[in-house]
Design a protein that fits this description.
Blueprint (H helix, E strand, L loop, with lengths): L1 H14 L13 E3 L5 E3 L4 E8 H4 L9 E5 L2 E6 L4 E5 L5 E5 L1 E4 L2 E4 L5 E4 L5 E5 L4 E5 L7 E5 L18 E6 L5 E5 L6 E4 L5 E5 L8 H9 L2 H6 L10 E4 L5 E4 L11 E4 L32 E6 L5 E5 L4 E5 L5 E6 L11 E7 L2 E6 L4 E7 L1 H14 L3 H14 L4 H13 L3 H10 L3 H18 L1 H24 L1 H16 L4 H19 L1 H10 L5 H21 L14 H25 L6 H10 L2 H13 L8 H27 L3 H45 L1
Antiparallel strand pairs: 1-2, 3-27, 4-5, 5-6, 6-7, 8-9, 10-11, 11-12, 12-13, 14-15, 15-16, 16-17, 18-19, 19-20, 21-22, 22-23, 23-24, 25-26, 26-27
Helix pairs in contact: 5-6, 6-7, 7-8, 8-9, 12-13, 12-14, 13-18, 14-15, 14-16, 14-17, 15-16, 15-19, 16-18, 17-18
Length: 708
């Protein structure tokens, strides 16, 4: 019986259909706040790949676009000059390869784009025929309008030699037509419902760099004419959402990060939200084996709840963002396996499946959405519709599959914030690395704590006030007795070995307060009158290191732009010690040649004493920062900048005093010192590189002689 049950169990395991993420031919990942790659469950899994032969329409040729409307898929088979209409069962229901206009039969010539309205009107970018063709529907493919080259206007926006090559099109709910045209640098062309040209929207701005501006300034007129024009690159693709906004994409290679993807309103104003951790640019990773690599988006689609997906033609990956600009998930890749692409051209969402068109392989890949992606979409939808409890459950399910997913923590933070659970919301915000949300929640939490404990604060203040008065009264009455006791105690302490040295160090540390407020007199006394102050200077240097470590480790979350888990204590100590000793050594080296009066000990002491403002300001500021919000961050950063500037001014003043230089000579000396520090670092790195090369050469020789 036991053997039979075991056999049945094995058969059930073998026969159960299981899709394992390990069989997916691409890596699924996202990025955390620091831009590090975080593995994630696959959002979509490849199901099948469909060719033209499988559709029964012969082989596709250079297919360029997809559009979905009313459970029908419109596939632009550009090389064969036809549009293939497919139903939800992936059966071909119509092929449009010719039109009748003015009682004449017309064929398409390399059409590149297609858009279908809610009324099933079909807009076709008939590229090489230099026109946009509007058909009534696929059932009745009669021409209802032809949009051709706009007429030349008085302002010269359209030149007389302009050739109209429409490549991608979109239509809003009012019938306005938007077209991306080849070799058009003024933006997206806009036509009214009747086909009359209304102008351009969303023109991208390209600015030359400083190098180009410099050469343009010194070049002759003939050289300027030969130089490349600073023209914007035309948009690559577009899509129109249900609200009439135009999603448009530019090539990343030529534009700033906030110019790559735009969401344009009918007036051409960009309304895309960019509130994510990183810009909407796709991959953040650098490809060492591809020097000229850059993300080049080739298609974009607007989806439900203001979610949008972009397709990268270089990597074959699809990147999905929410309305705030947060990266939700990534899938796809470059290759020939199922789920990978060689020259992806277009994407579409069809019955909750993602379709990707490959114009090199001439096929259509179908992806199905996983439970992981479905939970993400459902959580976003529930939150936007006010169903916060359901959203919490959705995000919890997402975290069960991916506990590193920052957006899930952010979703939980928002839901708890709505329920006035401020402490939990703050914790979730910190897990999500969302400083803005944390600050907003903390504002309400701070108000709640102050409101509930206001009476305790008043009572505590009055208690401390009266206690202080009482202590001062008792102190005045017992001052004589205390003086006699203090005198006796001092006599006993003086007998302890090292007590006088300790008093001297404490006095020197106290003298540091005089130095930072009276630098000229303070540094003079430090050099000529105070005697040995090196122990106190060393203590200040150690205190500065401790202060910096304290700041790096315990800064308030809203002001901390780094991860405390990645802090290396030795590297952090080196951040203080290396510049400090480089300054001292290079300073002494140069000033010895420039008749400086200060010794290496004087330079060391003066530089160390100059660090005291950092200790006095940064430590209390780090503590106070935990009670501030982002809106109050100006106060926080102001005092940090004050501590740094104060320290630099003290170092500069100390250089004047200990070397007895004039102001001009001190400035020149400081410049030489900074150059010397740079040269020292360069030589040190060059030496390290040489050592690494020698080690590598030695290893190679060892392998050749003893291993091979």
């Amino acid at each position: 019986m036991k053997k039979i049950l075991s056999l049945i169990f094995m058969v059930l395991i073998i026969c159960t259909p299981v899709i394992n993420a390990s069989f997916v031919p691409y890596n699924s990942y996202t990025y955390n706040y620091d831009g590090e790659v975080i593995s994630a469950p696959p959002a979509y899994l490849p199901v099948s790949r469909i060719t033209g032969d499988e559709l029964g329409v012969n082989e596709l040729s250079n297919p360029r676009d997809l559009h979905v409307q009313d459970n029908k898929l419109y596939l632009m088979d550009s090389g064969n000059n036809r549009i293939i209409v497919i139903n939800e069962k992936y059966d071909v229901i119509e092929i449009i390869d010719e039109i009748i206009h003015n009682d004449q039969v017309h064929n398409f010539d390399s059409p590149r784009g297609i858009f279908v309205t809610d009324q099933e009107n079909i807009y076709i970018a008939d590229t090489e025929n230099n026109r946009i063709v509007v058909l009534k529907s696929y059932k009745e493919p009669e021409v209802i309008n032809i949009i051709e080259k706009p007429e030349q206007d008085a302002e010269g926006v359209i030149s007389s030699d302009y050739i109209f090559y429409p490549e991608k099109i979109g239509v809003d709910s009012y019938g306005s037509v938007y077209a991306v045209a080849r070799a058009t640098y003024d933006g997206i062309m806009k036509f009214d419902p009747g086909g009359t040209f209304e102008g351009f929207i969303g023109a991208p701005y390209v600015s030359p760099d400083l190098f180009d501006l410099f050469w343009h300034t010194i070049a002759t007129e003939e050289q300027r004419q030969r130089r490349t024009l600073y023209l914007p690159i035309e948009f690559l693709n577009l899509d129109v959402d249900s609200e009439g906004f135009v999603y448009a994409i530019n090539p990343r290679r030529y534009y700033a990060d906030d110019e790559i993807v735009k969401r344009l309103n009918p007036a051409g104003v960009d309304r895309l939200r960019r509130g994510g951790f990183h810009p909407v640019i796709g991959d953040l990773r650098e490809y060492e084996d591809e020097e000229d690599f850059y993300n080049r988006f080739v298609d974009i689609i607007a989806r439900e709840n203001d979610i949008y997906t972009v397709l990268c033609g270089n990597t074959g990956r699809l990147y999905t963002y929410d309305r705030q600009g947060n990266l939700l998930y990534i899938f796809g890749g470059y290759g020939e396996q199922l789920g990978l692409f060689i020259r992806p051209a277009a994407i579409a969402e069809f019955n909750n499946k993602m379709l990707v068109l490959d114009r090199r392989e001439n096929d259509l890949t179908i992806f199905r959405r996983t439970e992981y992606a479905s939970m993400i979409h459902q959580a976003l939808l529930n939150y936007e519709q006010g169903r916060y409890e359901q959203a919490v459950n959705n995000w919890q399910n997402v975290l069960n599959q991916n506990n590193n997913y920052s957006l899930a923590y952010r979703g939980l933070a928002l839901a708890n914030f709505r329920d006035d659970a401020y402490q939990t919301a703050m914790l979730m915000s910190e897990m999500a690395e969302d400083r803005s949300l944390y600050s907003n929640v903390f504002t309400y939490y701070r108000q709640e704590v102050l409101r509930e404990n206001f009476h305790l604060a008043i009572y505590s203040f009055l208690f401390l006030l009266f206690a202080g008065i009482g202590i001062k009264t008792l102190k005045n009455s017992s001052i004589s007795r205390k003086s006699s006791l203090k005198s006796a105690a001092n006599k006993r302490l003086k007998k302890i070995k090292g007590y006088n040295t300790l008093l001297k160090i404490l006095a020197d540390l106290k003298f540091g307060l005089y130095v930072i407020f009276h630098p000229f007199g303070g540094f003079w006394d430090l050099k000529n009158e105070r005697g040995k102050t090196t122990p106190a200077a060393t203590i200040i240097l150690i205190g500065t290191i401790i202060t910096y470590l304290f700041f790096r480790q315990y800064s308030a979350f809203v002001f901390r732009e780094w991860s405390v888990t990645n802090i290396n204590i030795y590297q952090e100590m080196a951040n203080i010690l290396v510049p400090f000793f480089l300054w001292c050594i290079v300073n002494w080296s140069f000033t010895t040649l420039m008749e400086g009066k200060g010794t290496i000990k004087d330079i060391y002491n003066a530089t160390a004493y100059s660090l005291l403002p950092i200790i006095l300001i940064i430590i209390p500021l780090t503590i106070i920062g935990h009670y501030l919000t982002l809106n109050e961050g100006a106060f926080y950063w102001f005092f940090i900048i004050v501590s740094i500037i104060w320290t630099l001014l003290l170092i500069f003043t100390g250089t004047i005093v200990i070397h007895e230089y004039s102001l001009t000579k001190t400035v020149i000396t400081c410049v030489f010192i900074m150059v010397g520090i740079g040269m020292s670092l360069f030589l040190f790195l060059l030496f390290l590189n040489l050592i690494n090369m020698l080690i590598g050469f030695g290893n190679s020789v060892y392998r050749e002689v003893f291993i091979r």
